[in-house]
Amino acid sequence: MFKKIFIIVFAVIFLSGCMPSPITDTHKNPVQRNMIARSLTNIGNTYRINQIIKTAKKNNKLQIAFIGSSSFVEDENSQSAAQDTVTKLGKMFSKKTVISMINFSVYGTTSEFGNIMAQREVLAKKPDIIFLDYAMFDEHEQTDREHFEALIRSCLELPNNPQVVIFENSKADNIAKNDFMEQAAKYYNLPIITVSAAFLPEFTAGRIKPSEIYETQTAYTPAGKEYISDFCANYIEKAQKSKKDKEYVIPAPMTPNLSVMNPKFVDAEDIRAENDGSYIRAKNKNNKLFKSRIEYLTNTENIPFIFITEANNVYVIAPVSNKRKDVFEILINGKKAKEFSTFAENENDEPKVFRVYSSNVTEKVAVAIQVRGDDKTNGENPYAENAENPENAENTKMSDGEEVSENQDTEKEPENKVEEKVPQIRYKDFEFWGIAYTKN
Length: 440
What we know:
The protein is α+β, with helices and mostly antiparallel strands. It is built from ten helices and 18 strands.
């Protein structure tokens, strides 16, 4: 009799969905459960997420996107936090539910990059849930605020009404300026996951060491990635159990005259140039995001690459690293406007967005890109590296190993002869991968 009662009770619990979730199951200790609970610092409006969950259970389909610069980046050595999140969410739904993932996480990038590239890489696919993670590398200037808000609005305005989740990442020293991201999230009444709120109390109390969570200042250990996925799955779980909001209304923009909405990206090979100048177009090898490049052609006359567009903002996307030393100049309608360095602390090339033109109005502009050379020689080094100083030409000696026969007639060079200067371009590795513009 007791056995039958136990089976009935177990069945009721199972069918009612009250079984332990993948987040609150028994293998989590109190410290871990407290961290997971603290990570959700704002649950936001729950209308959209509950509609999405309801539809996913009905149609057995759910698409999750990760857009960011650090937390969810794919790692060859271990499974990403994004994939861990998808795995955990799979346990919340029926086995029939197919959960697909879009992971557009590019290390070291900013909201400006995300706003430009996500239009093509993510939003066109209309995901159901979107995690935004740009707290690590944004420079917290006005342009970052504008692009972060523009990205939020672009996501929210998709016709399928996705849920946007703001993920406030933090470095190992827990230094991350998330103030404007948190401000935007609360203004739009969005959920916020805050890494520092979860980890910092445990680091301070000595219950967990930072080295258990972080491999470097910005990279997580496998254990750290599991926590990140716990935080994300915890939001979905809590949203189902919280109060059910009846509707969600997108508020007016925080930023007056938000001019960076709906940027258009153009691949290098598709740019219509007035003049390619000293540049050639080539394919990018082993680059999934940017398949082509426009590369400066060495030993040329440094003729600018020129294109014309109608826009209020114009951007150039170029690789930066500690191996690149070039400075490139921007001319707008024939006049020098700005110059930018391609040097960065990172070892490998990472894409960076350079805003080369900005105006309050949309107008037609001619944009010229050229490599900056030595100020005195206008891009040219007047001597080859092994050229001799003309003033010392008479002291020139034969190199070691060369001999002259005693009987060989030697014609004396004129005393007033000066060696010809050999022009040589100093900069060799400048390239860019595309342009973008807004037209508002």
